[in-house]
Amino acid sequence: MRNSPARPGLSERVLSGDRRALARVLTYIENDDPIGEAALERLFPHTGHAHLIGITGPPGGGKSTLVNELIRAWREQDAKVAVIAIDPSSPLTGGATLGDRIRMQEWHADPGVFIRSMASRRFGGGLARNVLALAHAFDAAGFDPVVIETVGTGQDEIAIASLAMTTLLVQVPGTGDGVQTLKAGSLEVGDILVVTKGDRPEAGELTRDLRNLRHVGMAAGVDQSGWQAPVVKTSAVRQEGIGQLIDAIGKHRAWLDESGELDMRNRQIITTDITTRVQDALARQLQGPDSGDATLRALVDAVAARRLTPHRAAADVLARLNRR
Amino acid sequence: MRNSPARPGLSERVLSGDRRALARVLTYIENDDPIGEAALERLFPHTGHAHLIGITGPPGGGKSTLVNELIRAWREQDAKVAVIAIDPSSPLTGGATLGDRIRMQEWHADPGVFIRSMASRRFGGGLARNVLALAHAFDAAGFDPVVIETVGTGQDEIAIASLAMTTLLVQVPGTGDGVQTLKAGSLEVGDILVVTKGDRPEAGELTRDLRNLRHVGMAAGVDQSGWQAPVVKTSAVRQEGIGQLIDAIGKHRAWLDESGELDMRNRQIITTDITTRVQDALARQLQGPDSGDATLRALVDAVAARRLTPHRAAADVLARLNRR
Q: In this predicted model, which residue has the larger pLDDT, A156 or B298?
């Protein structure tokens, strides 16, 4: 086959808009197949255009419905929309949840929408790396925005905020007392706070409370970036709020550009990308029983025997790292 | 003061059971104060005795009540119990939640109980490192078990499983349909599944469903470790199930010892400890505007300009790391 007219490679086909090629690259990436990494090497120079939008909130919070409404609105503006739905469902239940499958069917015939469900895995070090790799592939294929959706309370929200340029934090009315809601929600990570199920009687009160809390936070100097997170109430039942939310997302994107904050967030996303890759590789080297690097494994042995502290082991790793 | 009779150092006082010294070390650690790291250097050789137990589940799932009942049962056996409650509450609400404060007051007079509430932070890379540092301090001070409690769905559960020897996964009856429950729960990470609020009418069905799911999972080879996770139904109202749960925890600990799995999990916890420290240090070096390491920052610049892929940047970091 040498010197025969080259069949376009996988990444070239992704760049030309071939959906099946894209799907294959995504699968290679998810399976940690070297073909995925090789394709990413070629795709990465074509990235840097997509708006990465994180959406997080409690389970049963109406996120899937909200994302569906957003897709519809973006499609009316002819945007190509990708969704990475991070799904903590058990391997026992077999991958994508029922809700995701229904949603995927709805948009299946539309080449301007690509929804990818992704299982979070045990010892999820690889998750951030994989999510960013998928986002790069979508970005190179011309999708913009790329939505990263997670069920989350606590660390999830924090994690997603370090992967996205704009983070939507979903809050649901009528799901508990105030203390619990506050405990579950890390308001700081939300660039935009979205109250879903706005037809519920408690929705107005929650919206007011969130607006007040936001003012308290601003006054206390909790958020010093200069962006004042809007609170948007939406209702799928009443078909309300999505236009406002699309506006808020656009305004945040414009603010990111004007304030220079976009550069900061991009550097942060890249730092996450590099450091999680390093961490994953380190964990493999340190833990693998057939690891090639005896030096690194010896560090774990020394710490396990209490001959070395984790602090000194990490310092040893870093000293070798910074040696020129 | 040179050559004067040495006043016992902070870590010596922790080792001798001084509760105020311990509290100070915990605060230094949480604030990333070098005094905390210095104390840990002296404390670490005295660790390796405590049973690290993770407890995770949805907000409002009755975890605080459950932990309280466990403390009571362990105190009857004269165990010294420490609890690290990871609290995703907003800085806006000011640290520990109401529930935590009530609980802390209840045990305040008992020197055999130490409850520490710890806020999860934005860009939470430091969280795992800090939780383990607190656990080391408690371990050195003679606390055993050390409970790590998080609100969590999704990544939280995965994260806690990599910090604990035994993980209790809390499931709550009557909080949603089956699909949602499964989506929210990552059953695999639970060494013991705990159904709280066992007085609710749906508790029996949930317990049965979880037992069935577990059998399906065993048959499918999802869990190949050889441990069959028990499902324990508890009720604080009826004062039921805690004895059974204490038994199940003891059995899991015995199994860890006999099967050799304890060594594996300890190596995994140490690996997490080292790699998160390296990752945190890398992130500071890569991102800090006044970072001393221009080489690392240049990598981020090159990736931001799309002259370098994240994969190659990480490979560059790792190559320098493995250079002898």
A: B298
> Can you state the angle between helices A261-287 and A242-259, rounded to 10 degrees?
90
ipTM, two decimals, is: 0.77
Q: Do A185 and B314 touch (CB under 8 A)?
A: no
Residues A156, A160: Cα–Cα separation, whole Å: 6
- Taking 80 as the threshold, does the pLDDT of residue A157 lie above it? no
Instruction: Kindly state the tokens that stand for B74.
Output: 């362990």
Q: Do B314 and A277 touch (CB under 8 A)?
A: yes
How many domains is chain B built from?
3
Residue of A nearest to B221 (CA): A92
- Whether B301 and B239 map to the same domain: the answer is no
Pick from B124, B185, B303: CB nearest A90: B185
Cβ-Cβ contacts under 8 Å for B49 (sequence gap 6 or more): B139, B142, B144
Contacts of residue A85, Cβ cutoff 8 Å, sequence gap at least 6: A64, A67, A96, A100, A115, A116, A117, A118, A149
**Sign of the torsion angle spanned by Cα atoms B30, B34, B39, B41:** positive
In this structure, what token pair is assigned to residue B90? Answer: 């907003």
Residue at A7 is within a domain:
yes
Residue span of the structural domain in which B35 resides: 1-40
Do residues B248 and B288 share a domain?
no
Evaluate if residue A208 carries a pLDDT over 70: yes
**A127 with A98, same domain?**
yes
Task: Tell me which residue in A151, A154, A186 faces B183 most closely, judged by beta carbons.
Answer: A151
Q: Report yes or no on A310 lying in a domain.
A: yes
Same structural domain, A309 and A200 = no
Please indicate, yes or no, if residue A112 is contained in any of the structural domains. yes
- Mark yes or no for CB contact B156/A161 under 8 Å: no
Cβ-defined contact of A274 to B155 (cutoff 8 Å): no
Best mutation target among A275, A296, A299, A300 (most B Cβ atoms within 10 Å) is A275
pLDDT at B293: 64
Nearest to B158 among A98, A120, A189 (CB): A120
The answer to whether A129 and A277 have CB atoms below 8 angstroms apart is yes
Residues in A closer than 8 angstroms to B127, CB to CB, are 155
Contact A182 B122 (CB under 8 A): no
pLDDT of residue B140: 97
Of B277, B306, B313, the CB nearest to A47: B306
Q: At residue B191, what are phi and psi to the nearest 5 degrees?
A: -80, -30
Residues B281 and B236 in one domain: no
Q: What is the DSSP string of B207-235?
A: HHHHHHHHHHHHHTTS--SS----EEE-B
User: Are the beta carbons of A153 and B158 separated by less than 8 Å?
Assistant: no
Look at A321 and B317 and tell me if their CB atoms are within 8 Å.
Answer: yes
